[in-house]
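pls ignore typos typing on phone
zinc ion + seq
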Amino acid sequence: MHEFSVAQHIIEIALQSAKEHHVDHISSVEVEIGQAAGVVTEALEFAWESAVRDTALQNAALLIKEIPVSVVCRSCGMQYDPQEIFDLCPRCGDMNPDIIRGKELRVSAIIT
Ligand SMILES: [Zn+2]
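k done
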């Protein structure tokens, strides 16, 4: 399952960061996930539960911030926020989007 490896990756980053900052307790980990990042948040939450078991993050909550998608039309330069990733450009009707936001997948905060 893809989300399980994403959860493991988040755990590695959080543990590494805790070590660097000499923190021994993490209460929650905040992640930013773009809606075009290819991660199903419900599946990630589910994966998190099992991935943190027997780690220092066992009781840490995963806080997911979803980042909406924003694109620029390659045909006419219009910037818009599509509801669906394959929405047509509202100005020229082309489907030629360049995703400028919404592919994020990063740990944004570690809360002790
Ligand atoms: Zn356009």
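The first strand starts at residue 28 and ends at 34. The longest helix spans residues 2-20. more later
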